[in-house]
DNA sequence: CAGGGAAGATACTGCCACTATCCAGTAGCT
DNA sequence: AGCTACTGGATAGTGGCAGTATCTTCCCTG
């Protein structure tokens, strides 16, 4: 199909399709002449995946490119899962120093909390993992706010996070070694977070409403 | 204290403090003269909260303003919790039509799945809730991708989301009617998501590494 | 063989979150 | 009183991101 039909089929403007090609998110069509190329179903599917990762997953164009690159280089299941896990952007990144040095105490206290948590959960992750650094940064900020995020609290959340990760991995590995593995794994690993967030917000809304209904005092 | 000291104490540039004031995120200092104002500890705390909501919570300046406005209007516990729940931005918002109409079937199928889920979980939320709409949009996109998000799958995630929401609400309500309630509730409700996401990613990393270690075949 | 797409390159736009500059008007020291 | 560093407020500018538009060249189709 021609680019105009690809655009019509996916609802993505032609200019945007060209943009995604430029940015390396979408492979070029099969050129049939200097100014003509043929696109196939794989382009339709890829565009849907791009839309899902950016609008649902909230990934930037650059992050989406990185993630899709790992999809295209998929070898075996384990390597693919690991590559995707590291290609996904970390939600919290350390600040640009500046005031980081001022609070070395909070920093190391937060780092200790993270280490305790990882030990308590028996998680096997290197101390250099970007996720560890992100969590440390987050705990440092929360400490500054006097928020109640002591390790005991965290463990309860960590247990639940562990259960969710197990569900995710079960699903991602269910496509074991099939050609569609990498793509489905990306969908599971990248979109599980936003889906869960939506469910959590919904559950939160339910609980808040029940509280309000239980004792409708003032007002 | 003067604005320069407020800046030094929080690590936020003076220009940014002025920006937050303009945008209504930070109340003005107590003016002591036409060109001089005095700031207090509440300004320090508010700036920390702004930083936490934007950098950790990922909220935009506009969303942060809305959330902080509900904090400042806090009356009683239940109302405050409800107000915050609705002031927080919904992660997934419906697209701008366009290709929405093309897929009315997927749309209604997704809506039916969401209704089934809410019924199965016995959640009390109005069908007009932004979270319901967001979830519907997300499921529609996932259906297009042929992703495995059938209701049975979703229920497992929903149960976990429910547990998390219960933990959140317990914490948010623990500050019951104290003056700090609203602020702590915001921290819990707005930052629980990012914290959980970080923990989930960490747990995911652990699981991926264990898989890789269990059977280190090719390489 | 004329006209409408198509491809690729380049330039432009709109939004966001700051950041910098400018303009008085003090505060506080001498 | 005079000087200077700093302040609040207004306004303008910056850089990054995600597209969107334009322009040129080319060539398939009717």
UniProtKB/TrEMBL annotation, chains A, B:
PROSITE patterns: HTH_MERR_2. The lineage of its organism: Bacteria, Bacillati, Actinomycetota, Actinomycetes, Kitasatosporales. One of its GO terms (molecular function) is DNA-binding transcription factor activity. The keyword Transcription applies. Residues 1-70 form the HTH merR-type domain. It comes from the Bacteria. It holds the Pfam family MerR_1. Keywords: DNA-binding, Repressor, Transcription, Transcription regulation. This is DNA-binding transcriptional MerR regulator. InterPro entries: DNA-bd_dom_put_sf, MerR-type_HTH_dom, MerR_fam.
């Amino acid at each position: 199909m021609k680019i105009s039909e690809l655009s019509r089929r996916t609802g993505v403007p032609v200019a945007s399709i060209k943009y995604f090609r430029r940015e390396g998110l979408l492979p070029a069509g099969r050129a049939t002449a200097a100014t003509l190329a043929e696109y196939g179903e794989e382009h339709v599917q890829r565009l849907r995946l791009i839309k899902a990762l950016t609008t649902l997953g909230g990934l930037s164009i650059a992050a989406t490119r990185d993630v899709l690159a790992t999809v295209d280089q998929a070898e075996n299941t384990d390597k693919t899962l690991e590559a995707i896990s590291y290609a996904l952007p970390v939600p919290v990144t350390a600040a640009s120093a500046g005031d980081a040095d001022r609070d070395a105490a909070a920093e190391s206290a937060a780092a200790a909390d993270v280490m305790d948590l990882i030990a308590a959960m028996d998680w096997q992750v290197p101390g250099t993992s970007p996720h560890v650094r992100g969590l440390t940064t987050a705990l440092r900020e929360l400490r500054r706010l006097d928020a109640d995020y002591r390790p005991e609290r965290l463990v309860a959340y960590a247990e639940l996070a562990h259960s969710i990760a197990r569900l995710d991995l079960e699903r991602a590995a269910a496509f074991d070694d099939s050609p569609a593995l990498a793509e489905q794994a990306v969908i599971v690993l990248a979109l599980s977070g936003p889906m869960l967030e939506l469910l959590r917000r919904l559950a939160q809304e339910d609980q808040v409403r029940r509280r309000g209904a239980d004792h409708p005092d003032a007002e």
